[in-house]
Amino acid sequence: MEIWDAYDENFNKIDNVTLIRGEKLPEGLFHLVGEIIVKHTDGSYLLMQRDRRKHFGGMWEATAGGSALRGETPIECAARELREETGIVSDHLVEIGRVKNYEKNTLYVEFLCVTDCKKDSVTLQEGETIAYKWVSRDELVSMKKSELLTECIQDFVEELKS
């Protein structure tokens, strides 16, 4: 059972209230998700392909990420998810944005990780991802919205275009 902290819509943690993954979230309460865009020092970006058994299976996403567990800060969540989903360990994560999704009662905290890791050292997480690739900035911005998962990342890509 995965237990989360509860947040209000302004990203404030609500003391003494917990949420359980899979249960309907009470009105006005949110759970927190940390997402990380990985940029190599050579300027390329890491894309991960979702496991085909997952929602949006087979789509590419330019983030690693997931729900913050009870007691985790957004940056702790992001660092853990980055390590679990890619094998990349970094304590140099920079927050680049926050997004509210009222339909899903979810708060997203977006981070950028710039790394000089060996590009062939990325590891896949069983049940989460099935492939990865490094793409140039131009390749990333030329991808169709239907190819890239998450509105947050599509917004990031739009910013790269300008």
How would you describe this structure to a colleague?
The protein has helices at residues 74-86, 137-142, 151-161; strands at residues 3-7, 13-20, 31-40, 45-50, 60-61, 64-67, 93-101, 106-115, 129-135. It is of the alpha+beta class. It has a single domain (3-147), classed as Nucleoside Triphosphate Pyrophosphohydrolase (Alpha-Beta Complex), CATH 3.90.79. The mean pLDDT is 89.
CATH homologous superfamily identity: Nucleoside Triphosphate Pyrophosphohydrolase
Largest sheet: 4 strands, mixed
The CATH class assignment is Alpha Beta
Using DSSP, what is the number of strands?
9
Please render the helix and strand layout as text.
Elements: E1 3-7, E2 13-20, E3 31-40, E4 45-50, E5 60-61, E6 64-67, H1 74-86, E7 93-101, E8 106-115, E9 129-135, H2 137-142, H3 151-161
Parallel strand pairs: 3-8
Antiparallel strand pairs: 1-2, 3-6, 4-5, 4-9, 7-8
Provide a concise account of the structure shown.
The protein is of the alpha+beta class. 19% of the residues lie in helices and 38% in strands.
Labels describing this entry:
162 residues, alpha+beta, Nucleoside Triphosphate Pyrophosphohydrolase, 4-stranded mixed sheet, 3-stranded antiparallel sheet, globular
